[in-house]
Amino acid sequence: MMNEQPTKKSPGRGVRAGRLVGVVATLVVTGLAVGLSQGWGRTDQAPVASSATASSAAAVPTAPVLLNGTDDAFIQLLIPMNEGALALIDQVDARPAADPSLRSLLGDLRKAHQAELRDLRGLLAAGNVPELNIHEGHQMPGMVTDTSLAELRTAPDGELSARAAALIRAHLAQTVVLCRGEQTAGGSPELRALAGRIQQARTTELSTLDKRPDAPTAAPGG
User: What is the DSSP letter of 65?
Assistant: First the structure.
């Protein structure tokens, strides 16, 4: 159970954080329902530009934007998710034992995720909304946690790539779910458009992850 209690110094901040947690839960459920109804997980889609290219195509808003509760919750969740993925990428990059194809993909993901963070924080600023780390210590779906990073750090070389790929796949897949939820319930046209671009990029990234030359194949009959 998430314990989001307001402090005496900043009661409004605590109340708002508690409300965001509720909206995040709704966003996850909404995104999951939409994803299932639209056949989430399919790979028979046309290739699209990488998220780094898609994200950089949209300039940071120069005019104020209006963010509703779903918009706010989406951004406040995706920021730590991307930061966790970047921490994972840095850790794998420091291990020579990582599969070359995985290392190459993660290098592309690093650029994409950094660009997305700039766009997400730009929208928060344009909406005059402070960034809140309301999910610190929470076990959110698709989020790379300190615990998973610690386990990966001590993983044998022979297990490193498979474990890292599983973590990054869960992150990419959950982001697809959240992006679909934002496009369904979000209020900001700018953020809905960004979520659409990120969703398309994640679809391509998932396909690339699963089809890379060094990806493990299922055993016969498995």
Answer: -
